[in-house]
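Problem 12. The chain below contains 307 residues. Write out its predicted structure in token notation.
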Amino acid sequence: MDAAIGGIHKEPRVSRGIASGIAHTAWTVWFSGSSLFKTCPSERVRPASRSQQKGGPAVEFPRVEFKVLGPLEAVSGGRVLPLGGPKQRTLLAALLLHVNTTVSGDRLCDAVWGATPPASAQANVRSYAAALRRVLNPDAGEDRLSLGHGGYQLRARPDEVDLHRFEELVERGRSALAGGAHPAAAGHFREALDLWRGGAFEGVAHHDALHIEVARLDEARLAVFEDYAEARLALGDSREMVGPLREQVARYPLRESLWGKLMTAQYRCHRPGDALQSYALARTALRDELGLEPGAELRRLHRAVLG
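Solution.
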């Protein structure tokens, strides 16, 4: 029985999660790549700034930290910058989703107003962009936020955007996990999760495009937590993980892979009764909400606990 519990294979990211499948499909419609900074080669090159086009030196703009893993913030010199009203903040969010690439005015209108933009939408976008340019390091001018023939472009270094740091840490963690380096993996995953200050783009109005990205990021955060739990369980930290896993199954009661990790942690803490109770709760949630029985992996764990 111990061997059966200890030999859990890595579970799929979502066993029966409906939202993640929708998010993945829609994500491919709106975005061309799976990572904020991993765009196609033609998008990766930054257009020359106006000063460079005129033969002058490039402006090295002051550092701004763009935070999207929680309430949208821009911080420079330890000061939170005033980003304006709701629509201006939504515009910044849309530009950050395509940082270092040009975004058309039409696409920005869709992001800000959805399917019903006002007649003045393009003019309003120009006004919001000008206001953001004044806020985001005035000395940088168009080198930070530029208006070109194809649309608008927000420029940022990779380490200025918390989403990029999150993705980089996750990549390191998964590489370490695949190589069996569980302490390093757990450290990278913990650091990545600690970047979150709330829900992604919290407080920003959600139209279709932004809603899709929020769903994708919520799924990514949960998947990283599962990887973190896997690394901690491999290190023997079962007792420490019971509480966090209980919190997550309370939020996501239809995610079988979370229930499986909770059952594993409980069993390894010599609490088989709690593991059986968790299985019963998972089964009830799945039957009541989806009309389904638990999947094969969760049933296997249940049999292993029963002995």
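Discussion. The beta strands are 65-67, 73-76, 79-80, 102-103, 145-147, 152-154. Students who got a different answer should revisit the alignment rule from Section 12.3.
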